[in-house]
Design goal:
The chain has 129 residues and is mainly α. The chain has helices spanning 34-44, 46-53, 67-79, 88-91, 95-100, 114-123. It has a domain at 34-54 and 65-123.
């Protein structure tokens, strides 16, 4: 019998649910180390700060993904080795990526699509940079 272990050292304030490591679940990810990246980002506020520096001129009623979320999705994707925005379609439903952006890993809304990520990348002006 395996006794569940509640993680309390590395991620005490990161998740409001216990972290379970199981290798025979239907929804899995190979990017488990991403939680360390998320912890560092939360402490530094990096993706939120960068997303907040970019002037958003989109029509508010049509916005599904904030610039902070898009920035996080792109930065986390790059850090995890997904260098091409073409991976956005596949990563949009990945449980770990959803959790990193602050959504429920199983029931949360999907992340931005590849065209949305590319529009985001092209919308940033020299002044924003």
């Amino acid at each position: 019998m395996v006794t569940p272990t509640r993680q309390s050292v590395l991620f005490p304030a990161l998740l409001d649910k216990p972290l379970h490591v199981v290798f025979d679940e239907a929804s899995t990810t190979s990017d488990g180390g991403a939680m360390l990246l998320k912890t560092v980002d939360q402490k530094l506020g990096l993706t939120a700060a960068i997303g907040g520096c970019i002037r958003d001129s989109r029509q508010e009623v049509k916005v599904k993904h904030s610039y902070a979320e898009l920035c996080g999705q792109r930065i986390f994707g790059l850090a995890l080795g997904y260098f091409d925005a073409n991976d956005a379609g596949r990563l949009g439903g990945d449980p770990m990526m959803r959790m990193m952006i602050g959504r429920d890993p199983m029931t949360g809304a999907g992340l931005a699509s590849q065209p949305t990520v590319l529009r985001f990348e092209n919308a940033v002006s020299n002044k924003d940079l």
